[in-house]
Amino acid sequence: MRHPIILVVLAGCSLVLAGCMGRDKDGVDQALDSVNAVDATNLSDIMLTVGDPREAVSYFTRATNEHPERIDLQRGLGKSLVRAGQAEAAIGVWTRVIAMPEGGNDDKVALADAQIRAGKWDAAKATLNTIPPTHETFERYKLEAMVADSEKNWKKADSFYETASGLTTRPSGVLNNWGFSKLTRGDAKGAEALFSEALSYDSTSFTTKNNLVMARAAQHKYDLPVVDMTQTERAKLLYTAALSAIKQGDVTIGKGLLQDAVDTSPVYFEEAARALEALDAGGKRG
To answer: What Rg value do the Cα atoms of the chain yield, rounded?
Structure first.
């Protein structure tokens, strides 16, 4: 894949070389080093954003093998491994980064994140405990909240979630996590409020919409909330509400919601249709 940014940089390299004709070799080498540094920086940025995670891992693996002393490349490898779903491997990289002279508190946060993704909650807590309280960042408090959640320390979790949401202009993700935490502890009303707030920041998140429907259904409120949704999303949300209703014993309501889901879906909704057939068959046997 060719990137316009890189092509521009390479074209600029030709101009630099042309301008260096007649100068001493040191001047040419210095110019090349400068261009190569810009080229490498641009490519690293691309790999960390729009690049395929597996390609990014390959790129940063090669780069760190060639320049193991460069902490920016080590960080790029750690981030890429997390993006590629290789949290275990990322732990080793972030541990190495922290041991480097330039390693800092943000790197420890990244290590804790990888440890949580790998299911190593105790290790993540220990890592977070090494970070001074003066290091107040969104990522740090988001992870602190998740660790507190895992320990069912609800008071501490709520405090961390509240702090984290106040440290970012895009709190939809952490508000969704907080809402799910509330839902799992039986506070459906509190969860509903948090999911609704999360959608006010990001109305496109289907996960949050689905969670909102579950929170409302837990209160026996089976009508869909007034949020933006596609026809396909509407069918899936009706299906979620239907299953919640049936699980809570509101079978008649659930059956009606399943029929609505089948009728609403723009394509054949196999799961909903199968659930509806099962209910009909059960009713006939009864």
So the answer is: 26
Nearest CA-CA partner of 228 in 206, 197, 259: 206
The closest of 20, 81, 241 to 73, measured between CA atoms, is 81
Domain 52-135 is classified in which CATH homologous superfamily? Tetratricopeptide repeat domain (1.25.40.10)
What are 211-224's pLDDT values in tens digits? 999 999 999 999 99
Alpha carbons 269 and 20: distance in angstroms, whole number:
67
Tens-digit pLDDT profile for residues 109-125: 999 999 999 999 999 99
Per the listing, tokens 């490349």 go with 73
* Six token digits for residue 3: 């990137």
Q: What is the pTM of this model?
A: 0.80
Are 238 and 264 spatial neighbours (Cβ–Cβ below 8 Å)?
Answer: yes
Are 123 and 108 in contact, with CB atoms under 8 Å apart?
Answer: no
